[in-house]
Amino acid sequence: MKGMKKAMAIALAAAMTMGSTLTVFAAETGSGSTSGQGENEGHVEKEVINVVLPTVPETTGSPFEYITDPERLIQATEGARYGDYKFPDANEDTGVYFLVGEKEYANTSSTLQVINKSSCDVTITVAAKATASAGGKDLALNTTVSSGDAAAPLYLSLKVGQTDQAISTTEATVVKTIEGNEDNFEVQYTGGGYEYVPKVTAYSWKALEISLSGAVSKDAVVTNDTTAPTVDVTWAFAKAADGTVADTTEQVVYEDTGAPGIISITDFIKVDPKPVVIQFSTGLAAQELDVDGVTLLKGSDKAVANAATYSVDMARRTVTINADAGYLNSAKGNVPIQLVLTKGGKTVQKLNGSITVLNDYPAEAPAIISITDYVKNQPVVITFSLGTKDLAVDADNAVLYQTAGRVAVNTSKYKVDMVNHTVTIDGTASFLTGLTTDLPIYLAFTKGGSEVAELTGTIKLAK
Asked: How do 422-425 and 414-417 pair as beta strands?
């Protein structure tokens, strides 16, 4: 009997095992699926064009203004009329003078520079032309240097890079391509997305120099009424065409040589605490620092800040103070700070600044932020602000006026975007296409039908 029970147990176990195996076999077929949507991380335009063109202060006049002295009166009198002004040595003097210093004249003008702070090469076009004075008593121009040509005694030359171009009444142009520097740029991520921006340590760029020189023959026949022509020099730039080779022998190195210092400090607002970012520069004299070569001191007693409350980015030259730093949240006023910079463990710079601490956002008045210049038939975009706390106004109710007489613009000629705070004017509007000078404009906003704000600005003609 015991033997039979044992046999039945074995048989039952075998049957259970077979049943289990059959269940597995039954699940060998089936299906399933999943999907994954692709997403592009973003895009950064790495063609940055930033060209710094020469500017001529109105207070000093053009560096290309000149004096001619065919009879060499200045040398003969040792500059008696000009007091302690310095003039060229008599043995080298060409008789044409440009003011190059506070009290110094030279036969060659001061140099203007076109600086390429772009990531790509740019082509510079410089044009020069002489314009005759009224009255027809100008010294005649020569296209070659001649010390004995009485008929055409005046020679003026434009120099662009290493190229000299004689000036005449026919416009002449010199075209040069100068290099950009993509190594001065980097990709950064901000709250608004990715950006391609200059590195904080970017200071070396390429530039093109422009100057004017002159000579006048001693054989020129002159009177007290003799005049000289005006020289007009213009410059323009454009991205270099593909395949254009830079004129490397014509360009010079330009370096930003700003002194070490704190560039900017963001405010700390107690009702909305955010990290405080300090942007600093070491200048060119102290570019290299220790890896941990920045120490933050705080308060009027210059106490060393807890290292856990701030971080340093040496590549971007920033110090970021945590939003929960106790000395900011408990501050009764602005907080003085000092950055101590070290090299080899020794202090090389101390940079001082102050963090502005506010209980609430400052009240910023509504204003026009920017207006694009008018280019023939192209739209003009006005960007405005309704103030820090957004002045309450009627929806889509910005009224545009033009000229000092407040002439209302036809509403079909402009579009108001109250979300992005812009007004876009149709570039073909008749009041724009006929412009010959800058145009005052006004933006009026209403609330409940009553005007609550008027913002003013000027549409400028593109040059």
From this structure: antiparallel
Q: Which residues contact 384 (CB under 8 A, 6 or more apart)?
A: 366, 367, 368, 369, 398, 421, 422, 423, 443, 455
Instruction: Outline where DSSP puts E strands in 47-91.
Output: 51-52, 66-68
CA distance 167 to 159: 10
Q: What is the Cα 281 distance to its own chain's centre?
A: 17
User: 259: which DSSP letter?
Assistant: P
Contact 328, 355 (CB under 8 A): yes
Q: Is 323 exposed, middle or buried (0-12, 13-18, 19+ CB in 10 A)?
A: middle
> Tell me, what's the pLDDT at 247?
93
Q: Which two tokens stand for residue 71?
A: 């009879």
Residues 6 or more apart whose Cβ sits within 8 Å of residue 237: 51, 53, 114, 122, 123, 124, 125
Nearest to 409 by CA among 392, 431, 438, 384: 431
Residue 320, Cβ neighbours under 10 Å: how many?
A: 16
Amino acid identity of residue 57, one-letter, is P
What is residue 9's predicted lDDT score, i.e. its pLDDT? 46
Contact residues for 339 (Cβ-Cβ < 8 A; gap 6+): 262, 278, 280, 294, 295, 296, 297, 319, 349, 350, 351, 353
User: pTM of the prediction?
Assistant: 0.55
CB 407 within 8 A of CB 427: no
